[in-house]
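Support case: user asked for a sample of complex input and structure output to validate their parser. Sending the pair below.
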Amino acid sequence: MKKLKKTEKPVENKAQNKIDKKSSKKAETDIAKKRYVLSDSTPFQAKEAYKALRTNVMFSMPGGDCKVVGVTSSVPSEGKSTTAINLSISLAQIGKRVLLIDADMRIPSVAGRMKIKGAPGLSDFLVGEAKVEEAVRTVDEYGIHVLPAGSIPPDPTGLLEAKQVEHLFSALRNIYDFVVVDLPPVNSVPDAIILAKYIDGYLLAVREKITKHKEVSEALKHLHLANANIVGFVCNGGPRSSERYNKRYYHRGYYHKHTTSEE
Amino acid sequence: MSEWKRNKEEREINLWRFVEVFLKRVWLIVLAAVIFGAGGFVYTKVAVTPMYKSQFKAYITNKLVDDKTTDEEQDVETNTGDLNASIGLMYLYNEIIQSRSVLINAAAETPGLENYQYGTLKNMVSTVMPEKASMIEVTVTANDPETAKLFAAAIAKHAIARGQEIEKRSTMTLVDAPVEPKAPFAPNTLSNVALATVIGGVLSYVLFVVVDLVNDRVMDSEDLENRYDVVVMGRIPDMSSASREYRYKYRYSYRRYNYGKGYYKQ
């Protein structure tokens, strides 16, 4: 094989460089967004964290029946939708039949992240404009079913108090192993509390160094007054290097040595 | 139904937390200390007027030696009473040196101090009388070395004259004449900078501690478990840091690719 020789300095194509930089930035943004949804490109520690969450949820809600898990938070932007989505995907990865419901009919986000149409969805079903079979979509990429929020109604709270909700959950319990419900923040609107009678356990998402204790206390008070079963907290946003357990058992050499052989 | 307990009104503060605050912010504390130290240095050099000291020492006695007194007569007349009287004269001359007449007259002969008030002049002069010695040490402080020396010399001259007017049998003899100081005695730049550095470090640390104590945010999962009777089911790392890793890897391969394009030729 001929050896390549250095001859001259590279000729810089500035126009091409600009195009390449733009496309790389877009690629980075797409990748960054994708990374928040569990996939092959998700960092290893995040995958393991969701596996641990999945295991804890399963063991804290024993029994063979369908489990309805509600994921909420005290205030917006604490990672409850991400938690709901990734918990659903993680449960599906071990062969469970999972339905993810986007019950946040004010600011729905699940449909966009799952790349499915937002309507018809839960609100359309509750007003009688769509059937459940039309509203529930299958997302083959992640192996879950998704019931998006649907068209944004003028009174989501009133819709959730309808009788159809009871029928819906009763029917879903016969079909799925887990129903994960992405709920709006507890302190903002009462929607999460209204569904307390249908939800077997609540996960309260909290973001480290962002969420205030006052807000968490208020959220717990609301849930307690509704006789909700609080399964536990999900703490989002911790730095990856701070976990001693991860440092000891999942340092680079160990990880690369073992995953290359397993993959 | 899981139980939850009310948020505690009394919080337990772990003393280790103070160490954690320091370790977490050590570089900021060091930076604050350095900034304060630099500020102290600048302040010392720019804002503080250097002060100079000029001193003289004088011996005070009650023996008035004149041409008519022989050496034998001087020796015979010296006794314990004379020595005690000298000490008393020392206190007298201490008052004479700080008197209005001496200071005003001395200031009149010193360029720059002609219009100074008596109070200001008195603050510029300090005296020390060592024990068991008929000596007085006078220190004059001024913001100019020549002024300090001239004022000290003028004080010595007028104090001697005024003392002999008041107590004829007394005399004040200069042991060390005042000299012009070569360097200011104040401010002490090194001690000012050191003090400012320490103050900066301590203030910044106290500020960080206060901010940490009043911080009502959830710090980590342990904080949640300590405060509430609810388990933390999962601790999800910050996945956005992963996108930074990707950017680094992508740019590295991007640069290699670009160099490969026109750099190597067969």
